[in-house]
Design brief:
heterodimer; A: 600 residues; alpha+beta; 5-stranded mixed sheet; 18 helices; elongated; disordered N terminus; B: 215 residues; alpha/beta; 6-stranded parallel sheet; globular
Chain lengths: 600, 215
């Protein structure tokens, strides 16, 4: 869909203009011919039928012109106009027409209107046909154009076959009444079949459409069905006589057909009114969004206006490798599965795609109306989505850095415990065994040397344990936040009072962020600020982990405190959380607060 | 006394075995993972199994799980879990489930044969044993003001020994006090801490540990 082109500019060039004028003029000429020789005509016998005939044909041509102006893509406009022109062909088979060229044309083309109308109706509004429609229409064109048109014309010499007033038939190669009548009979039989088939296809189309499309296309399709049934009645009426005529009964049927086609033309106009209404309703909703709508508000508006609650708006990123939603979060292409993706294009660039129920936006005009109504909001949201996607990318990379760091810490802790510490314990054992083998009467200096080495080893083991614990406490990954905080309270140099710490497990990065926040607050930060105790309150409220760490008797303004907080902000920020410092209730208190999003 | 040792580090496993054999223990089997340990215990019916807390495959708490399993299915076999973790939480997991005949010592105690032998003896008699370093940390951890501050120095010593799993008899021997004096100290401690005094040895240990961990 192209955004923002002016409708009139779509009628490009004088050729187009001349073509449309010629189409209207053709209708006028056809009915003028009918009126000049009313006896052999359908539309010339009364002013009522003349006006009805003109209204039906011009209505379709006008509808086609209108569709063409609104939507230069797709053949629908041309098909409607062609059907309107075809509607007039039947007037040219009038014996009183006076021109052999015109009469010959009428002989060939007089039955072409029904397939052309069916074609336009079935292809409305997108201009494209389904395979089954294509086959049925091909049959109808053959039946009407060849079996009822060109082929009998080859065997019809009007002067030898009881039409003395008729002009010459320029195509007659041989006069053969028998072949002529047989072909006409076959044509009528075939007509009984293809009219019903096409009417059935139109009904099927109506039933299978999505609700919005059905509401839009219903008048067009229903008008088409009524028209085709009236044509079927004409064929049925012509069956006993083996051909079509213009007797009073067919006149009445013809008037009915004119009425049905007028409904088709009116339906096209109606769908335009509907699209306008959708558009202005949407424009109102977009205005309601205000100047800075929340991300996703546009999606809600579109979903409501188009009545598809599952509709999604996705924006292609500059690098074109992925789509993001309004929040800047990558849309999984699996979300497109089983749904239709309609690109919204401006200046050859896809600015967004709508992911929606199949068939919802079969009418390209509807898409266009939608898009022009929400253009500014769409642009606004697209730019915001791009910015958010960049921020999200930054956050993700920060989070990866923190996670990599944590994984490295955990690995280091394991290595120290399982490697170095294990070896030191083994060494201590070996020393002990060696000491036992010194014999019954060892040198005292040797014994004291071994004992001293053993004592040093024990100090090394202790130091190593503290180091490993500080790097990443195994209890955090083994047993979770509450257990790790409990262990921290056993290690700490100042009292840690835990009012509440949830016992449940959280994702590793969240547990690590929460743990290190508490460890820093009760360790280095408490040390730098001179806190005499720390009170913890950690709560899991729906989708957030809320932490409050109160440092008692502390000075939060010290630069060391600020520096330590920056590190914590990085950790919390990497999880899309926030961290801030408040004054506490007591004069000498300060409170570190953090909120970390977590799915519950 | 019949001992089984489970540790995935060969040096420590075999070294501990030799050290214990030197002081008269009968090491009937040494294994390197929890599955083999359970089979060895079922086959050999040792008095005590010495178990490293971290063993294959996950190297987290296989030893603890195996210890719980042994206490459940072989009540006549005591367990001594060796761990590099100072946190009391792992020890509590063990004691809360089956307080009799279990012990939790730091890994490096394997070379301290006196402590190791004492622990094994007490475990085989149905007592529980908790590493003195862990208890010391619990007793001396920083606290808000509370009843612990009202204890005398001697009472704190007695409290720590209760937490390590010693019986009144053991305490009186360690501190060289008469059993009557120890009983008086224990009574004072329980009153001051606001704990209900219980004659049941194992409930006494758990009550004291829970107090120390929470206060």
């Amino acid at each position: 869909m192209t955004l923002g082109a002016k409708p009139l500019s779509r009628l490009a060039g004088p050729t187009q203009l001349a073509m449309w004028l010629a189409a209207f003029a053709f209708g006028l000429l056809s009915l003028a011919l009918a009126r000049s020789s009313p006896a052999g005509s359908l539309g010339g016998r009364s002013w009522l039928s003349t006006l009805a005939g003109l209204a039906a044909g011009w209505g379709l041509i006008g509808a086609g012109l209108h569709v063409r102006m609104r939507r230069p893509v797709g053949a629908s406009g041309y098909l409607l106009a062609a059907a309107g022109v075809g509607w007039f062909f039947v007037e040219w088979v009038n014996p009183g027409i006076g021109s052999s060229l015109a009469f010959t044309f009428g002989l060939v083309a007089h039955a072409m209107a029904p397939p052309m109308v069916a074609h336009a109706v079935l292809a409305y509004p997108s201009g494209s046909l389904r395979p089954l429609d294509r086959i049925a229409l091909l049959g109808a064109y053959v039946g009407a154009g060849l079996v009822l048109g060109l082929l009998p014309a080859l065997f019809f010499d009007p002067h030898l076959q009881a039409c003395h007033l008729c002009p010459d038939n320029l195509l007659a190669i041989r006069s053969d009444e028998g072949v002529f009548q047989a072909l006409n009979r076959w044509g009528v039989w075939l007509g009984l079949v293809w009219t019903i088939v096409l009417a059935a296809l139109a009904v099927r189309r109506l039933v299978r459409s999505s609700p919005p499309l059905r509401r839009m296309a219903a008048p067009v399709l229903l008008g088409g069905v009524v028209y085709l049934l009236l044509v079927w009645a004409v064929f049925l009426h012509g069956l006993p006589r083996g051909g079509l005529s213009s007797d009073p009964f067919e006149q009445r049927l013809w008037l009915g057909q004119a009425g049905a086609l007028f409904v088709v033309a009116g339906g096209v106009a109606w769908s335009w009114v509907r699209a306008r209404r959708t558009r202005s309703a949407m424009a109102r909703l977009v205005v309601d969004l205000g100047e800075s709508p929340s991300p996703g508000a546009l999606r809600d508006v579109l979903a409501r206006a188009l009545e598809d609650s599952g509709l999604e708006v996705a924006y292609p990123l500059v690098e074109r490798e992925r789509y993001v939603d309004a929040r800047g979060i990558t849309v999984d292409s699996a979300a497109f599965e089983g749904r239709t993706v309609t690109p919204l294009v401006r200046a050859d660039e896809t600015v967004a795609v709508l992911v929606h129920r199949p068939g919802l936006l079969d009418d390209p005009g509807l898409v266009e109306e939608v898009v022009s109504a929400v253009r500014i909001a769409l642009d606004n949201e697209r730019l915001q989505a791009e910015v958010r996607a960049q921020l999200e990318g930054l956050r993700a990379s920060r989070s990866r850095i923190v996670e990599t760091g944590d994984a490295e810490r955990r690995r280091l802790e394991r290595d120290l415990h399982d490697g170095a510490q294990q070896r030191l314990v083994g060494l201590s054992l070996a020393l002990r065994l060696a000491r036992a083998q010194l014999g019954p009467d060892p040198t005292p200096t040797l014994v004291s040397g071994v004992d001293q080495a053993d004592a040093e080893l024990r100090l090394a083991i202790d130091a190593l344990r503290e180091l490993a614990h500080g790097i990443f406490p195994a209890v955090l990954s083994d047993e979770g936040l509450a257990a790790a905080v409990e262990a921290l309270a056993e290690h700490s140099t100042i009292p840690i009072l835990a009012i509440a710490v949830p016992e449940e497990r959280f994702p590793g990065p969240i547990e690590a962020a929460a743990y290190f926040l508490i460890a820093e607050a009760s360790g280095p930060i408490a040390g730098a600020s001179g806190a005499t105790g720390v009170t913890l309150n950690v709560r899991h409220d729906r989708d957030k982990l809320r932490m409050t760490v109160t440092e008692s008797g502390a000075d939060g303004a010290k630069p060391e405190v600020r520096a330590a907080l920056v590190d914590l902000e990085d950790r919390v920020g990497a999880l899309d959380g926030r961290l801030w410092v408040e004054h506490g209730h007591g004069k000498e208190d300060f409170v570190i607060r953090a909120e970390i999003p977590c799915e519950s | 006394m019949r001992i089984v040792i489970a540790d995935d580090a060969m040096l420590i496993r075999e070294g501990t075995a030799r050290l214990l054999e030197d002081v008269g223990f009968d090491v009937v089997d040494t294994v390197d993972d929890a599955q083999k340990l359970l089979r060895a215990v079922a086959a050999r019916r040792p008095d005590v199994a010495i178990i490293d807390i971290k063993m294959p495959p996950t190297q987290t708490d296989e030893g603890l799980l195996a210890a719980e399993e042994i206490r459940r299915h072989h009540p006549s076999t005591g367990v001594l879990v060796l761990s590099q973790y100072l946190e009391s939480r792992y020890a509590m997991r063990l004691l809360e489930q089956h307080p009799e005949g279990v012990g939790y010592l730091l890994k490096e105690r394997v070379s301290d044969v006196a402590i190791l032998a004492d622990a094994l003896r007490r475990i085989s008699e149905g007592e529980c044993v908790l590493d003195p370093t862990i208890v010391a940390r619990l007793v001396s951890r920083p606290r808000q003001k509370g009843p612990l501050e009202e204890l005398t120095g001697r009472e704190r010593e007695v409290l720590a020994l209760i937490a390590e799993g010693h019986s009144n008899h053991g305490i009186s021997q360690k501190l060289v006090l008469s059993p009557k004096t120890v009983e008086a100290h224990v009574s004072h401690i329980f009153t001051k801490l606001g704990l209900v005094e219980t004659l049941d040895y194992h409930r006494r240990v758990l009550a004291v540990l829970t107090f120390l961990r929470s206060a």
